Amino acid sequence: MKGWCSWHEGYAEDPVLVGVVEVGSGPGGSLYACRDCVEAYRLKPLSDHPEESDGSPLYEQRRS
Questions:
Q1: Over its length of 64 residues, how does the chain's per-residue pLDDT go in tens digits?
Q2: Where are the domains of the chain?
Q3: Separation of alpha carbons 3 and 23, rounded Å
Q4: Is the dihedral of CA 42, 46, 51, 55 positive or negative?
Q5: H-helix or E-strand containing 16?
Q6: What does the alpha-carbon distance between residue 6 and residue 64 come to, in Å, rounded to a whole number?
Q7: Taking the complete model, does pTM exceed 0.90, yes or no?
Q8: How far apart are CA 17 and CA 60, in angstroms?
Q9: Distance between CA atoms of residues 35 and 5, nearest Å
C-alpha cells in the first residue's frame, strides 16, 4: 500500500504509523514514515509506544 511519509514528504510503499496529531477541535491526523525514515530517524512505530504515550512521535535511544 502506498502512503505519504511525513518525514521526507513523499509517497512510499508500506509506510509505518509513528504518531498521531490531536487537536482541541476539528480533525486530528496520523503521522506515517517510510521504512527508510523510520530507520534513519530512529522512529518508534506507534504500536511500540508505551501505554501512557500521548501519540507524539518517539525516537529510539542511540546505542553506545
A1: 899 999 999 999 999 999 999 877 778 899 999 999 999 999 999 999 999 999 999 999 877 6
A2: 2-59
A3: 22
A4: positive
A5: strand 16-21
A6: 28
A7: no
A8: 15
A9: 9
Q: What are phi and psi of 20, to 5 degrees?
A: -130, 150
Smallest Cα–Cα separation from 13: which of 40, 35, 46? 35
Contact in structure between 31 and 40 (CB atoms under 8 Å): no
Tally the residues of the chain.
64
Q: SS3 of 51, please?
A: coil
> Looking at residue 32, what is its pLDDT?
97
**1 and 14 in contact (C-beta within 8 Å)?**
yes
- Which is nearest to 34 in space by CA: 17, 58, 57? 17
For 64, the grid coordinates are: 553506545
Cα gap 33→47, rounded to integer Å: 13
